[in-house]
Amino acid sequence: MKTRSAPASKSAKKSEPEESKVKTLVSAEKPSKTFILPSTASDNARLVSLPDPQSGEVTRYFFCPDRGVYEFTVVAPPTHMARSILFTPRTSATSPSEEDKENPQPSVQGSITKKAELLIATPIDVIFFMIPLLAPSSKSGHSLFQPLDDIIDSHDDMPKHLRQILYDDVFRSSLLARVEAICDVVEAGDENMFRFNETKLTKELVAKAERMADHGLPMSLEERFVRQALATPLMAVKRDDIVISQPSNESEESASKSEDRQDSPSTVATTTTSSVATPVGESTPVPQPPSEEFACSDHITRLLRISTALSFIKESYLSPAMATKINEILPSAESPIDFKPLTDRLEEIAKLRAQALASRDMSNFTRKRNLDDEEDDIRAEKKRRKEEETKSKAAESHAVRSLKKVNTKGMQKMSSFFAKAAPKKT
Q1: Within a 10 A sphere around the Cβ of 359, how many other Cβ atoms?
Q2: Domain Ribonuclease H2 subunit B wHTH: where (predicted)?
């Protein structure tokens, strides 16, 4: 016998569509990373694991046969400011068409990532991956002319993804062009043979640093490594000549005061400040005028920017051994750029700073002076004792602090009640 279930109530039918309309946010799967990739990448682009040019550790990169290799730059908020990213489905501003109404797409829920980190793909030159392969080892000594395929095949421990990139047919022409920029090339029949040239590599790195300097360094690098490095110190000079040139008669002083009253407020402030009497023999800090030979010109500033950019490239993409070789080439005659004016200027600034430090008047307590190591130790000891006192006071109870305030003058100590009794007299 078949029975029919009771029909659903109207209230239950109404609750179903209402529940389906409610959308809840779901946390992204772990691990979740947000990549920003180039929009012009081809369909054959993929993520690869390549050795880092500076450390040799395997790191994730993005490779496109048409565009080249990209490294990922992490953009994240400070650790003390927690942030998250909300991902929502793309919505069209226009009204849905008839085809969309007939074939509606499934609804996509939004998601939230707990870490607001963006991994932005930025292009990196492939020559930084080729330098460890092309540079001769210390055992083999000077390298010889070899075909590129033989150089690649000589490294048996090469990662698989790097070998696939070097043998990619679409990327092959771009790879050969970059290898020729840092190698000596010899034609042997239908094939070119390459030999690594450190001078060519230096020229290529200097060209990159010049482009970075022309486009402008970040404000943090500009302030720390350029402006502060070229800032001249304040020198203490004697003002004997200024004292002699001051008015000697009272009539001249009164005449100068009457002229100052007719001037504007800004002029009055300037003249009165310059006419303050300075005792003979005392020193006053005044800006040291730069000499004509070592004037901080735009050329020296540009050289320092290029040197800063070049140091960043060496520390980020070159091994320590290769960076040392580049540093040896830069001051030599084979260098593509002359840093001697910059070196002379920095040496002059170092001498001025040493003179300014030596000429400080230790009797003038209005200025900051350098603390000796003993004074630093004394201050650290006082600070440590103060912290211990505050900790001991915080550990005491309220009753102990109240008992310390009691006046115990004339009272016997508690230990006197527990002392041995005096012998009785017979």
Answers
A1: 14
A2: 128-326
Q: State how far the Cα of 241 lies from the Cα of 245, in Å rounded to an integer.
A: 6
CA distance 341 to 390: 56
DSSP tag of 321: H
Q: What is the spatial distance between Cα 317 and Cα 121, in angstroms, rounded to a whole number?
A: 16
Helices (H), 226-372: 228-230, 240-244, 250-262, 265-274, 298-317, 320-329, 340-358
- Say if residues 182 and 200 touch (Cβ distance below 8 Å): yes
Q: CB-based contacts of 345: which residues, under 8 Å, 6+ apart? A: 230, 294, 296, 300
pLDDT tens for residues 131-162? 999 988 755 556 788 899 999 998 888 999 99
Q: What is the pLDDT of residue 9?
A: 52
Would you say the pTM of this structure is higher than 0.90? Answer: no
73, with CB counted inside 10 A (0-12, 13-18, 19+), is exposed
Residue with tokens 């095949």: 153
Beta-sheet strand order (sheet of 183-188): 146-147, 191-196, 183-188
Retrieve residue 274's tokens.
């310059």
Domain range annotation of the chain:
127-197, 198-247+277-363
The angle formed by the CA atoms of residues 24, 27 and 33, to the nearest 5 degrees, is: 140
Contact 62, 33 (CB under 8 A): no
Find the angle CA(389)-CA(395)-CA(396) to the nearest 5 degrees.
95
